[in-house]
Specification:
Layout lengths: L1 H11 L4 H13 L4 H9 L1 H6 L3 H5 L21 H4 L4 H8 L1 H7 L2 H17 L3 H18 L19 H13 L16 H14 L1 H12 L4 H4 E6 L2 E6 L1 H11 L2 H23 L5 H4 L6 H15 L18
Antiparallel strand pairs: 1-2
Helix pairs in contact: 2-11, 2-16, 7-8, 9-10, 9-12, 9-16, 10-16, 11-15, 13-15
Length: 324
Amino acid sequence: MLAAALLLSSVFCYGWGFFGHKLVHQLAIYNLPKELERFYFKYQDYIVSNAPRPDERRNDDPAEAPRHFIDIDVYGPDAVHTMPEAWKAAAAKYSADTLLKYGIVPWHVMVMKERLTNAFRQKNVDSILYYSADLGHYIADAHVPLHTTQNYDGQMTGQRGLHSLWESKVPEMFAGTYKLRPGKARYLPDAEKEIWKIVRDSYALTPQTLALEQEASRNFTDETKYDRVERNGKIRQYYSDAFAKAYQEKIASMVEQRLNAAAQEVASFWYTCWVDGGKPDLDALMQQPLTRAEKKALRKEKKAYIRGQLFEKGMIIANKKPAS
Ligand SMILES: [Zn+2]
């Protein structure tokens, strides 16, 4: 069962893994202002279960892949500070084809932000939900350090598999020990600046992300560092649980902080789109207002969230089996 899960996560994950993306969206909902919270809670299952959807699209849509990352160091060691933030200026400097080749996540976040804002303006519930889920995904991806470098899987430094270790295995194993309390949603007067700040913060963490793997490796042999799994007649290797634990100890709160930051930014972008879209009355847009039972469930979940008990109370939606 564990081996199957590892294979799946390594085949399908391109950012936080399914678990991390769902967790980010769930936490974002608890940090929305009242005017948005009821609506997002009403549709919580949709928002959370569709958090990984853009990754699934990559299998069928060739245009999808570059939306999840930016290999900013391709443009030089200081490019994260010198890259023009606006798409037009960046494309004039490097050509749109080049930008597409090395990833466009900050610019795609701005496209999604515009679409979500329009959905609020048009009071279109289906579009609000659809673009909320997608926008949240790309914002969360931009929080992953290895989504900002050409050495995205440690493949240039003999650390292949690091991508999935950092964004899937470590959060899946240790999120229950993290303090998951993102800050409240803030209005973003300049969302473009904000997404570039996120990319810079992520990029600043890439040296540690890579170096701490090497530090942790000193106490391991190849046999203890990796698990080997046979798949389609090929042997694949994945970081072992013991190594994941050693790596988590080295990186300390890094993944916890990026999860929290991602959830706060997702909530902030949703809130900003709602404000910019004319602050439509979301209670009036719901087909049915929250029932008494739903209101009670929201209060219970928020209480558990504030006390840091979501895991122990079995309220992490990503851990729940889908209803059959
Ligand atoms: Zn992704």
